[in-house]
Amino acid sequence: MSELLSVDDALARIVEHAQLLPDETVRVADASGRVLREPARASVDLPPFPSSAMDGFAVRAADAPGRLPVSFRVAAGTAPPGPLPAGTAAGISTGGTVPDGADAVAPVEIVDDEETHVAIHEAVSPGQHIRPRGGDVREGEIVVEAGALLGPAQIGALAAAGIADVVCSAAPRVTVLATGSELRAAGETLAAGQIYESNRAMVAAVLARAGAVVALMPVVPDDDEAHREAIERGLGADVLVTSGGVSMGEHDLVRRVETELGVSEVFWGVAVKPGKPISFGVRDRTLVFGLPGNPVSSLVGALVFVQTGLRALQGATHALPRYGLGLTSSDIRRNPHRDEFVRARREDSGPDVVLQVISGQESHMIARTAAADAVIHVPRGDDAIVAGSVVRFLALD
Ligand code: AMP
Ligand code: MG
User: Fold this and answer.
1) Where does 324-395 sit in CATH, by number?
2) Which of 25, 28, 318, 324 has most Cβ atoms within 10 angstroms of its Cβ?
3) How far does the centroid of ligand 1 lie from the alpha carbon of residue 42, in Å?
4) 7-22+170-313 maps to CATH 3.40.980.10
């Protein structure tokens, strides 16, 4: 492993090998976390009519200030009975339709409502407190672009634009399996040499955020036959993620068994810490990730590499990791040969995101990792990153 692949090159190879999943129609209410595959267009102007931004009185701006007769009152959800007669005002609620003829709304804060009349105490300017028809989006315009990951903002926009169904990528079906004869489930008693299995649930938690439907398989002991059976089953998914067994030990069987089962390996080993021995291959359309078993290696591998694969399979415009920027609160030594992902906590004091590196950075220290809500990307290099420098991070929350 002298010439290791860089993180960027590894990510590029993953994207290159990801073949788009079929698409399907999804109800907007069920589409959170999915990737849109066809642009979604507004079915109406938004707002669909000129509407009032305030509770108050619709008027001609030229008539204010002044005392005007009230012609009618418009509640939200009803149409005005007709245009606004000259020299009068119409009571109106927020969201009510501004009658033709009116060009401003005098908010309740500047009027005295006398039932049959209204005294408006201040001037209003044309257009004030009116949301013009189509001011947000026009019918037929694109509300959300193809390739967008549908988060809360996009879901809200789609629903508001009258869109009930959207065309999304099928959700990738991911099988996660953990290898290791030492692994036991929480609740069991540990015998000598055994530890609790932590990677499957953790990896599943990462991947669910990238729109995956995750199935966990039982723990696979370190023997050939068990590996063969489990991996063959896992290869039926769109993505197989294994943990453990990809290093150089005599019990590291995953890569050999995968090769025997027809997986062609695209790479093994990336210049990254933690997680160097990560493997990636394909069989037919299935992407196959082998994450090293140390829990922090599995966490980083899932976050950086597997998530990228999942987004690429779904046709996401932004498949690569999307970093935020923050300031490191301490010096960070750099590794000359490998990019590092350093666990950190975001401090919310002050205007900047300040990242505090947590203590306990070794790849087995998953309990210490619980204090982290971010990982800082520390590019390889010879000099240190000094406290106060801008660094890139991936959020863990
Ligand atoms: P491996 O990658 O199989 O060589 O495992 C590296 C280290 O990670 C060993 O100390 C394993 O016991 C530990 N490990 C492997 N898989 C898991 C897992 N699923 N949960 C927790 N620890 C693991
Ligand atoms: Mg192992």
Assistant:
1) 2.40.340.10
2) 28
3) 50
4) yes
